[in-house]
Amino acid sequence: MRHSDSLSLPKVAALQMVSVDQLPVNLVRAEALVSKAAAKGAKLAVLPENFALFGSKDIFKLAISEGKHGELQQFLSGLAKKYQITLVGGSIPLPADDGRVFATSLVYGADGVCLGAYRKIHLFDADVGDAQGSYRESESYAPGDAVAVFDSDIGRLGIGICYDLRFPELFRTMVDKGADIIVLPSAFTRQTGWAHWLPLLRARAIENQCLVVAANQGGIHDAKRQTSGGSVVIDSWGRVLAEAGLGEACVVAEFDREEQNALRRRMPVAQHRRI
After folding, report:
1. Cα–Cα distance for residue pair 200/36, rounded to 1 Å
2. pTM for the model
3. Is the dihedral of CA 23, 14, 86, 264 positive or negative?
4. What is the pLDDT of residues 160-175, one digit of tens each?
5. pLDDT at 247 over 90
6. CA angle 48, 66, 231 (to 5 degrees)
7. CA 44/CA 92 separation, integer angstroms
8. What is the pLDDT of residues 150-209, one digit of tens each?
9. Alpha-carbon distance 107 to 19, whole Å?
10. Is 10 exposed, middle or buried (0-12, 13-18, 19+ CB in 10 A)?
């Protein structure tokens, strides 16, 4: 019998949004999803990339405002404390020294205290066969340069954002730093997401023997931007425990740490590395 048959296992939630270019609307929807996750018993919730503002050049204004006042940071801290949940705040823009912004994921404990921040390392500069056609994140965003792993009430979290998913060495480094849960706020394009999202996520879970909690955007944002949805929780064996389709969603599953540790003992992949 799997340990997940126990009622005492902690739960995690991937929160899927269809964010728009109106900040107040997105914040209302974000809180509703965090509230739903808490009501389902989740102790960890992950918001998607660009949850607060999607598809708008106002990211620069927002980044400057956040640098001075931190209203979004206060919002995320308040949600974590209000709903007594560890909250991965998707990504918000914070100012970089060169006039661009960092796509930054902030993690808050259930007491509302910030546990740490991760700046997206890999930027999506690619040509995709969709209505948008060309994506050049590096025109607006500066790359981060540090792997982020934080202790939380539910486990040791390693964080990536969206395009980071395609770079397995990043996640291997997270495991070297003790991660047992990987969280991935994202806004995958529909073209790339429907082709690669789930296979890549399952690979990251299997090769690193980690729980993966991936929160995606999932719908039509404007005439050119469509995202792929499929927010998901995957266990360390690569099993899909909970999965969304398109549209707003809150998917919840249990984290069986004992089972994950047992798998790592039976098949000590990390110890077998030769390169």
Report:
1. 28
2. 0.95
3. negative
4. 999 999 999 999 999 9
5. yes
6. 0
7. 19
8. 999 999 999 999 999 999 999 999 999 999 999 999 999 999 999 999 999 999 999 999
9. 20
10. middle
What residues act catalytically?
A: 49, 120, 162
Characterize 119-158 residue by residue with b for buried, 16 or more Cβ atoms within 10 angstroms of its Cβ, and e for exposed.
Answer: bbbbbbeeeeeeebeebebeebbbebeebbbbebebbbbb
The 3 state secondary structure assigned to the chain is CCHHHCCCCCEEEEEEECCCCCHHHHHHHHHHHHHHHHHCCEEEEECCCCCCCCCCCCHHHHHHHHHHCCHHHHHHHHHHHHCCCEEECCCEEEECCCCCEEEEEEEECCCCCEEEEEECCCCCEEECCCCCCEEEHHHCECCCCCCCEEECCCCEEEECCHHHHHCHHHHHHHHHCCCCEEEEECCCEHHHHHHHHHHHHHHHHHHHCCEEEEECECCECCCCCEECCCCEEECCCCCEEEECCCCCEEEEEECCHHHHHHHHHHCCHHHHCCC
Token pair for 79: 């949600």
For 186-206, give the secondary structure using H, E and C.
Answer: CCCEHHHHHHHHHHHHHHHHH
Ordered structural domains, the chain, with CATH? 10-269 (3.60.110.10)
User: Of 197, 176, 199, which is closest to residue 186 (Cα–Cα)?
Assistant: 197
Quote the Cα angle for 34-111-229, to 5°. 25
CB 159 within 8 A of CB 170: no
Supply 238's token pair. Answer: 């690569």
Distance CA(23)–CA(255), nearest Å, equals: 32
pLDDT tens string 55-69: 888 899 999 999 988
Record the tokens describing residue 147, joined without a space: 């792997």
